[in-house]
Amino acid sequence: MKTSDFEYDLPPELIAQTPVEPRDASRLMVLDRATGQITHERFSDLPRHMRPGDLLVGNDSRVIPARLRGIKSTGGAVEILLLRPAPAPSWECLVGGKGLRPGIKVDILGIGSTVAGTATILAETESGGRLVEFEPPVESWLWDAGQVPLPPYIHEPLEDPERYQTVYSRRDGSAASSTAGLHFTPELLLQLRDDGVNLAFVTLHIGLDTFRPVQTEAIEDHRIHREWARLSPETARTVNETRLAGGRVFAVGTTSVRVLESAAVTALGVQPCEEELATTACGWQTVAAFVGETDLFIRPGHRFRAVDALITNFHQPRSTLLMLVSAFAGKALIERAYAEAIRERYRFYSFGDAMLIR
Length: 358
Prior knowledge:
This protein has helices at about 140-145, 185-195, 235-245, 255-270, 320-330, 330-345; strands at about 25-30, 40, 55-60, 60-65, 65-70, 75-85, 90-95, 105-110, 115-125, 130-135, 170-175, 200-205, 225-230, 250, 290-295, 310-315, 355. By secondary structure, the chain is of the alpha/beta class. The chain folds into two domains: about 5-65 and about 160-355, QueA-like (3-Layer(aba) Sandwich), CATH 3.40.1780.10; about 65-145, Thrombin, subunit H (Beta Barrel). Strand 6 (about 75-85) and strand 7 form a beta hairpin. The chain is globular.
């Protein structure tokens, strides 16, 4: 397939600049894959679509204040965006500023423009970023000097940085939020639990490559970004037991899908195991616990093994995220749903409305 097959025109005013309050007041488009029916609801209506014994799986990664301001010895301004840890004390980063060649040192500015640390450019990366070494280690001063980064299409300042975090985020590491999870409130999660829906979490630390449009014309030629992920033995057991009992697995966001489907690929290579090891994985189970980077590129033609329903936002044209939801729902249904969302004036992207594909 071609990347141009995933293009669409979006009126700029439909790009949500601020979140709605309360979180679950956003709109919810419901897509039925079996019938092709599209209905319009509110996110607070989600419990109507779930049954006792179903499982909701969210990504518990937390956005770090990954945007750093700095200044070179020449006085030139620099911006550094942390993407992922490299061998300590280094990070893979995106950089903004002139002449940031290997060997260049940058003072990182903290509160009141005091110097919080020093960054040294070590090398350029294949993707056009930089490998940067920090002294002292960035973790020791990050929360005092960094800012939570917002996607480039959001131009309004965010009054409360917590509004770009899910209510269940707890593991620091992402450069962007798992935005499908932004619609959940503690009250809604408690209601689902009281209704007999089980909750489980995976971790995937999101890099900003998530927002980059695919540049190659043939999508098979695209080199997918790698992200660190974890599916614990406890969550693996819960997923496997849910599916064995006839329950459905609802993934919150494309990041949760990526972890679950990566874990399903891992399970394919696991041999049948003894009962006492079943908390980790068995060859006959749907998913296997794993920790490490995933480079799984989910696009049309992917066979979904672990996910039965998907809660997601509306994604950018030409993005791997749009390709993923097209793989799950079918390209024709997604095209029809996006056209209807534009006609009905849905709000798009990170702070926008939601879609349930079941």
